[in-house]
Design brief:
6-stranded parallel beta sheet, globular, 166 residues, alpha/beta, 37% helix
């Protein structure tokens, strides 16, 4: 189904060599906000830099694909040491397709990882990648995000009540 991730995990920090091997994942396309960092925050979340280093040691190609502007994406991507695609147009596949092509790994062996069903998961499913839904590091309190999270719950049960809000 278009709205359903193939895998649902707590965070990117849960991904290790065993996980990658089990699912046939050879490359990662990463959303930025609430997947690697807090929304509109220029710093990676705790543990993300170490996790990225582990992925690099395994030789896993990685690329950020974000719907944000270059002004927002470039500084954090530079800190993370990752190539990026800004204005990725998710849920359309333009940014995902570009990343798959640049990494040179077939879509079926590439995972799209993000915290939003209506952008990350739909785009990855349309492209034929392995889609991984992660819980957001923090739940935003503004009305637009609350509406998006409620709408997501109609397609895929997500219990945000136990997650930290910031």
């Amino acid at each position: 189904m278009l709205f359903r991730p193939k895998i649902w995990i707590k965070s990117v920090l849960s991904i290790d060599k065993e996980f990658l091997d089990k699912h046939g994942i050879k490359a990662l396309i990463l959303d930025m906000d609430n997947t690697l960092s807090m929304h509109k925050h220029p710093e990676p979340e705790k543990g993300v830099m170490e996790w990225l280093d582990k992925m690099r040691e395994l030789g896993i190609p990685m690329r950020v694909v974000s719907n944000n502007t270059e002004k927002r994406v470039a500084p954090l991507a530079k800190k993370l040491g990752l190539p990026y695609c800004y204005f990725g147009c998710k849920p359309l596949t333009f940014g995902i397709s570009k990343a798959v092509k640049l990494m040179g790994v077939p879509a079926k062996n590439t995972a799209v990882i993000g915290d939003q069903i209506f952008t990350d998961i739909i785009a990855g499913n349309l492209k034929g990648t392995i889609t991984i839904l992660v819980e957001p590091f923090h739940i935003e309190d503004n009305c637009l995000f609350r509406l998006k999270r409620w709408a997501e719950s109609l397609f895929f049960h997500r219990d945000y009540s136990k997650l930290e809000r910031k």
